[in-house]
């Protein structure tokens, strides 16, 4: 069922998409960036397509991926991770995803690095996302963050997520 708030949010996001702007709301603060370019999109697709169940892992994570999807968080924030990985498939009929991703990947865009590094990274961890991966395609630096700390890697590399999924960061 869709109410007035959902309709307004949908109209706002559609208008932003038409204006080639991605809008997010993090801890009550609006955050935006221009739509990413072809290199960014190619990398996002490659990363999403690389996600598989880690061999030899037990558990029941389905390793479902969605790209550039609105994810609502319990505090009212919403973000659009480049790649979101879920153990349980989100409801495809809902206007936005309302379950917490198990892992997210953000590919940096020039001029908007702070959005992902200074705002997104701590936000995702505070919300309970188990693995946050930030990839800078110009320097090939990959940050893999979990609550217990952050590792600095260099692409190409493969990352095993806590949820039981593996993903690859290409050149």
Structure description:
The protein is an alpha+beta fold and 171 residues long. The protein has one domain (36-169): tt1808, chain A, CATH 3.90.1570. 25% of the residues lie in helices and 33% in strands. It has helices at residues 4-18, 38-50, 113-127; strands at residues 21-26, 29-34, 52-53, 64-67, 71-72, 78-79, 83-86, 103-107, 131-135, 141-146, 149-154, 157-160, 165-169. It has a six-stranded mixed sheet with strand order 4-7-8-9-10-11, with helices on both faces. The protein has a three-stranded antiparallel sheet with strand order 3-13-12. It has a two-stranded antiparallel sheet with strand order 1-2. The longest helix has 15 residues, at 4-18. The model has no long low-confidence stretch (mean pLDDT 93).
